[in-house]
Every structure is written in structure tokens, then in C-alpha cells.
Design a protein that fits this description.
alpha/beta, Rossmann fold, 6-stranded parallel beta sheet, 10 strands, 37% helix
Length: 279
Amino acid sequence: MRVLVLGNKGMLGADLQEVFRDHEVFGWDREEIDISNEMQVDEKISELKPYVVINAAAFNAVDDAEKNINVANSINGDAVGFLAKTCKKKDIILVHYSTNYVFDGTNKTGYKEKDKPNPQSKYAESKVLGEQLLQKLTKKFYLIRTARIFGNPAKSSMAKRSFVNVMLELAGKQDEIKVVDEEYSNTTYSKDLARRTNEVLEWKKPYGIYHVTNEGACTWYEFAKKIFEFKGIHIKILPVTSKEFPRPAARPPHSVLLNTKLPPMRKWEDALKEYLGDY
């Protein structure tokens, strides 16, 4: 099976390339392809003729998207449409990742795959645009929504750092850390997400939308407490409200993704413990 991973220098992209190493896997990043260039997308992917394209490339700077909406829409939205059109034309499966941020966060019980998005930020709007174009322009797709990805730091200098790595860096510089005790959501180990992506393809699951995260949910404060507990770091952590850290983009207060289609993955605490043991 010939597999093309886009964004292979990112956190998830690198894990995807490793997970699919037993196949004929190609990894492309911004140096190899500009996914916002429709002609380039069509020419390069048509020439490679992969069985599946896995798009792990994204504009993930949530707050920057508020003032760079055109860039966010281009990468998270229009580019997905270009990929979908080429994949449909060449009968290629397309895997694309989206986010819990597409929901407004008012449903405290969580969101199922069939629930309707209601974005509250420019970043979320750009991700919804990508979802819509994907579903409109091709039928052979897996739209995988996920949340709070953590894992080995990305090789790309443009990539966003994970919350886990930020917390560990701060612990080396400060005696106490303030962390928002809000925004209840899932967390996801990038290696588990990559493995589950492979499994979805191996299992030949029906095309459509899937929610893939580690089991369980927490606030950012609860997440931070576990990070320091598992690393044996003794530091004062202060729970605060989001008002302590005003940010340009709105965040959904409750955005738990409910998985109703796939076997559950391991608990987020177990995945975090494994990652920190290797860190």
C-alpha cells in the first residue's frame, strides 16, 4: 500500500510516517508541496498515485488565526478542498484531521460524530470549512476529529508545541505555575492517534466522521497536575479562571468528543504516563 503523509515534520505527521513504515510510505512537508496551490496538489499527487493521502498539515495557531484568517482558511479550508478534488479524480482515499473546537462547548454531555458544528473562533471556522469541503468534494474520506494532541516535539520550526512540553519547560524556570481550571475536554497521544488511523484503514471502516481521542477528559489544570505527578516534579500549581489569561480566540468550555463508532482507546492518564516515561 502506497501511503502519502502530508505534514510529516509535525508531531502527528512524524508518528504517522513511523506507524506506516511497513508500507510504501512517502512523507511530504512544506518543502515538498504547497497544499494551498491547487495545481501543485493535483500534479504531484496524481504523479505519485498513492492508495491513501493522510493530511496532517494544518494551521494550528488558534489565536493567530483571529488576525490571519485568510491564511487559516487557505490551509485548513481551501487546501482540503484541493486534496479532496484530486483524491476523488484519482480514486484515492483521503484522511483528514479536525478538532473539538468546531463545537461551541455548550453541551456538557459531549459531542457525537453526527452533531452539528458551531464554531466560535476564526480558527474553528477554518476547520469547519475544511470539513465541509471534504464532505462535498469526495466520498472516500475519513474525517477524524481529535483534541489536545501531545507527543514528541515536531521537527518543523513552524509547528505548535504541545501543552505537555510547555508545562515541562515552565517547571524548569518557575517555582509556581498558574493553569486554567476550565475548558473540559479530551487529550490525545499522537502515537495512539497515528495507530488508530492505521487501524481504521486496516479495518476498512465505512467512510465518514470519527472521533479519536484517549478515553476520559479533564481541564488544563487537571492535565498539568498529572504531568508533574508522573514526572515527580514538585511545583506549586494554582488553578485560575480563563480571565487570568485573556486570549483573542474564544475556546469552547465543554468540548468532549464522544466516540460512538470505534473501540475505545486507552485512558489519557495511561498514554501520558507512557509518553513521560520516554521523554
